């Protein structure tokens, strides 16, 4: 069951600006026992995105109520929320009276191998680069061709994720996840001032690390930094936290800081 | 009348990757007396875009036939063609057996002031920058948030277009047009190796200039170059060629090279 502006639907108006321009935002939310996880954090990011794109913000109480409808009977599932600038005529200019489109879709829980969180995953470095544009950096917007091209680079099911650099050669994130390095007993994650998606789980990890007294920093990082790090891990709302056990030729040992973070984070979460 | 995969339609499957990721391309085509103009050029660009995005190419004979249906009874109109990677489940990875979506939409001819081509237009410089990414440069893809943000910067109907710089400060194009400078008796237009849309009309202007013996070059250009130029003009399939009569405080005189190009180009075209 999907809800479009509050109504069950399977199709969208052909004039929607989400289709024509990617003029909108989305959230992908883990659902456990029918409940959307980290709801306040997802709503905060969505509202911040609306502010930056000058989209009229949705009523988050209404979204929560509609999420309940969409998730009726669900156990484990994925909830995707899309907000677009709605239907309009041709042309980039948004109508003054734009009526945003509000779309809630339910998807199956992804069939990632259950051991990914425990034994770690193999990742690769993508050739597709992320463009640098501070105006869009951090947003989970609907312009995602770079991720599509990057994810199209490999077919091997043994490779769980691809890391992406920006056009300046900085390590930024995975195609569907954020990335952290462990070095010198602390965490470092790429700065997202110029590109990348500011992940909800990334923010949770930074909070958890701070509460545990683990030093955290954001910085400009390179692939060489990743190779030199003691450990690497990936985060997203859906994957939780996956240690990286191999990047290209480099193998990483199990790292106690990563294990501590997993324990702290996921007592009440999807990886529990 | 709009045609979706050959069938009259007003809505699109909610799972279309055009909506979720902007995973597709479009063409906006001027229609005169029911005929789509510069059809071979638009098809060539579309096929080249499909090749670069690894989208299965559409059958252009079929597209031409469907364009005829969509344009039945049309005089002046705008034809928009969208090709997306089609419907799929959640996730950036494209399904192996992706069935592209083929969408033809008819829109009214835009109500631009008829004098724009003769007396020229007032343009502004946008603050929104274009990100540099060679992987997407030149393509008329569906990731157009930068143009949406730029076009949202002004409301004044006296300003016909906004020029955009890339994040490195180079002048690239207008929000919906390409830009040319006239200097030293020749044409210069921004190189589109890192960003921008390789316009069909831009290519026609370069051809026309070459046939007239007018020197042409592509180069990295700045706003200072535009200010120092003898003349400036904009091109697109829909606007044809608009001289710029004012950019910010700088006013430009009528330029005979621009007039010569207009005559050469539009004997059989929309500005005739």
Description of the structure:
Two copies of one chain form a homodimer. In chain A, the strands form two sheets. In chain A, strands 8, 9, 10, 11, 12, 13, 14, 15 and 16 form a nine-stranded mixed beta sheet that branches. Chain A is α+β, with helices and mostly antiparallel strands. The first copy, chain A, is built from eight helices and 16 strands. Chain A is globular and about 55 Å long. Chains A and B meet through strand 3, helix 1, strand 6, strand 7 and helix 5 of A and strand 3, helix 1, strand 6, strand 7 and helix 5 of B. Strand 3 of chain A pairs antiparallel with strand 3 (11-13) of chain B, so a sheet runs across the interface.
Question: Can you tag this structure with a few keywords?
Answer:
homodimer, 272 residues, alpha+beta, six-stranded antiparallel beta sheet, 26% helix, globular
Strands, helices and their partners?
The structure is a homodimer of 272-residue chains.
Chain A: E1 3-4, E2 7-8, E3 11-13, H1 17-21, E4 24-32, E5 35-36, H2 39-53, H3 60-70, E6 77-84, E7 101-108, H4 116-119, E8 121-125, H5 145-151, E9 161-165, E10 171-174, E11 178-183, E12 186-190, H6 200-211, E13 216-219, H7 223-228, E14 231-236, E15 240-247, E16 250-251, H8 256-266
Parallel strand pairs in A: 8-9, 8-15, 12-13
Antiparallel strand pairs in A: 1-2, 1-7, 4-5, 4-6, 6-7, 9-10, 11-12, 11-14, 14-15, 15-16
């Amino acid at each position: 069951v999907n809800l479009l502006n509050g109504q069950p639907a399977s199709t969208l108006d052909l004039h929607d600006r989400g289709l024509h321009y990617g003029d909108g935002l989305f959230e992908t939310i883990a659902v456990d026992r029918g409940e959307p996880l980290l709801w306040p954090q997802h709503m905060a990011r969505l509202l911040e995105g609306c502010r930056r794109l000058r989209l009229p913000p949705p009523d988050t109480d209404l979204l929560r109520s509609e999420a309940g409808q969409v998730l009726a009977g669900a156990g484990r599932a994925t909830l995707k929320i899309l907000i677009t600038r709605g239907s309009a005529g041709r042309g980039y200019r948004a109508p003054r009276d734009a009526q945003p489109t509000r779309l809630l879709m339910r998807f199956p829980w992804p069939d990632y191998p259950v051991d990914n969180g425990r034994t770690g995953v193999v990742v690769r470095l993508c050739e597709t680069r992320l463009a640098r544009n501070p105006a869009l950096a951090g947003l989970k917007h609907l312009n995602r061709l770079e991720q599509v091209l990057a994810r199209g680079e490999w077919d091997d099911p043994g490779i769980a994720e691809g890391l992406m650099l920006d056009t300046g050669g900085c390590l930024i994130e995975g195609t569907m996840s954020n990335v952290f390095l462990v070095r010198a007993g602390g965490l470092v994650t790429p700065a997202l001032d110029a590109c990348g998606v500011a992940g909800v789980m990334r923010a949770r990890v930074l909070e958890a690390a701070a509460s545990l007294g683990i030093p955290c920093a954001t910085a400009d990082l390179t692939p060489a930094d990743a190779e030199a790090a003691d450990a690497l891990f990936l985060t997203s709302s859906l994957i939780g936290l996956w240690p990286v056990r191999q990047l290209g030729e480099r193998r990483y040992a199990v790292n106690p800081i990563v294990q501590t973070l997993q324990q702290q984070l996921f007592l009440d979460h999807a990886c529990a």
